[in-house]
Design goal:
about 475 residues, alpha/beta
Length: about 475
């Protein structure tokens, strides 16, 4: 009997005891079928949401709501009261016919984490607010689904990975490509040597344009702006720095300006890079390591060109210990191309298997077309396969079984670290040598100092308990 079957058996016996007791007192002994088995109330994971913006509404809300027999939202938190109210209405309406009940709301996630009935949290906040609530959640005994990238700095990412390892909690990074069929197959083919030794991996990413209005404005009353800034420096509020403010709910959840501000992230090198470099690492088998040398060039907005200051066009080259070269550029198509001594494999997002669309693109392509066939054997080495190719279901399953999910904390930290190293190399103008075991630069104290950023009190991961 596995852990899940044992848990369900206990729940069934407990409910039957209660039913017998009620019968003796004259209450009906008919118990609704939903109280037995996987959808029994005590078996449904009680989920809270931190951050109720664009990504929550597009990813975490539908991702969890798809599985009412496994999980339900019971609480939500956001520094913006309008977004919080929208989330409450959306979630309660979605769960109305599923025994959902009230969704409690909080402006302070620390208060929410004190609730012992909450089993797990989804975190869909801006990048600078990823590591801290995730660490606090696992310290509070909650399992976590955390949007990528894992952290704003390599220092914070290491703190998070260590906290997860220390507490034994389940943490799934929102690197959902690990649950998509074509990415799994591509990495299995590469890891099984179907194109020989890998010499080069090409990763194509988009870029963000400059712009944004830097004119200071008054922060809206519905937003706790100081809390939103968190551990980053205090700067004047502007609409283009934070997110869209509008009375029209249809336009309230567009792509926010903070994604283009280095104060809150690193631009597309982490935005899309955390996805694609993660797949590159998976295929290369270096998920717990990283490059040994990295160099890069990039164009940054000129002073006075606006508020947004993340990188524009760029080129990154990272060498790995086995000799493989990872090249990341906005000049490549969006996706990952593994190049080996005996051929190549290309993978990107999209439906798989399918025929090429009108533009001739494919989600999976290869120099040997037999490798694209989903029925063609990949070899003996098999990688983690999420149930129903569903990343959120994979997380919920891991919460129950306590087995590692598709994208655990350490793996997510290493993928994000490679992105952040690339960002540092864009600024360095010279090659940087990296020791992935120590997670330090080699004989380079100047850049070791950039593995962390100053944290503005009372916020920040450095103020959290480490024991």
């Amino acid at each position: 009997m596995n852990a899940r079957e044992s848990s369900q058996g206990t729940t069934r016996r407990d409910v039957l005891k209660a039913a017998v007791g009620f019968g003796a007192l004259g209450f009906p002994t008919i118990v609704p079928a939903r109280v037995f088995g996987r959808s029994a109330p005590s078996n449904v994971i009680q989920v809270a949401q931190i951050g109720c913006g664009r990504i929550a509404r597009g990813s975490e809300f539908p991702g969890v709501l798809r599985h009412p027999d496994r999980a339900r939202f019971v609480a939500a938190c956001d520094f913006d009261s309008v977004r919080l109210s929208d989330a409450k209405e959306l979630l309660e309406r979605a769960q109305a016919n599923r025994g959902g009940g009230e969704v409690k709301t909080y402006r302070d996630y620390k208060e929410m984490l004190k609730d012992p009935t909450i089993d797990a949290v989804c975190i869909s906040t801006p990048d600078h607010w990823h590591a801290q609530p995730a660490i606090e959640a696992v310290l509070a005994g909650k399992d976590v689904y955390l949007q990528k990238p894992t952290s704003l700095t390599i220092h914070e990412g290491r703190q998070l990975a260590d906290a997860v390892a220390r507490t034994g909690r389940i943490l799934q990074i929102g690197s959902q490509q690990r649950s998509e069929r074509q990415f799994i197959r591509a990495c299995e083919l590469v890891r099984n040597g179907k194109i020989g030794k890998i010499t080069r991996v090409e990763v194509g990413l988009p870029t963000d344009p400059p712009g944004g209005d830097p004119t200071p404005q008054t922060a809206p009353s519905n937003l706790d702006y100081d809390a939103w800034l968190g551990s980053t420096p205090s700067v004047p509020y502007t609409l283009d720095r934070v997110h869209i403010q509008t009375d029209d709910p249809r336009k309230r959840y567009g792509r926010p300006g903070w994604l283009r501000c280095e104060q809150f992230g690193a631009g597309m090198i982490t935005g899309w890079g955390a996805h694609h470099l993660d797949i590159a690492h998976w295929g290369l088998g270096v998920e717990h390591s990283g490059p040994v040398e990295i160099q890069a060039t990039a164009e940054f907005p000129k002073p006075g060109s606006g508020l947004w200051d993340v990188h524009g066009p760029f080129h990154v080259e990272a060498k790995y210990a086995d000799g493989a070269l990872l090249v990341v550029s906005d000049k490549f198509p969006n996706g990952i191309k593994f190049i080996g001594e005996d051929g190549w494999i290309w993978v990107t997002r999209g439906a798989y298997p399918r025929k090429p669309d009108a533009k001739g693109t494919k989600a999976l392509d290869a120099s040997d077309q037999r490798l694209v066939d989903p029925d063609e054997p990949v070899g003996p080495l098999r990688l983690h396969a999420s149930p129903k190719n569903d990343h959120h279901l994979d997380w919920l399953t891991s919460v129950k079984t306590r087995e590692a999910p598709a994208a655990p904390a350490e793996v997510g930290h290493r993928s994000t670290s490679a992105c952040l190293l690339a960002h540092l190399a864009m600024k360095a103008g010279r090659p940087l040598r990296w020791d992935p075991a120590r997670e330090r630069f080699i004989d380079d104290p100047e850049y070791d100092a950039l593995l962390s950023r100053p944290q503005r009190a009372p916020y920040g991961t450095d103020a959290l308990p480490t024991g």
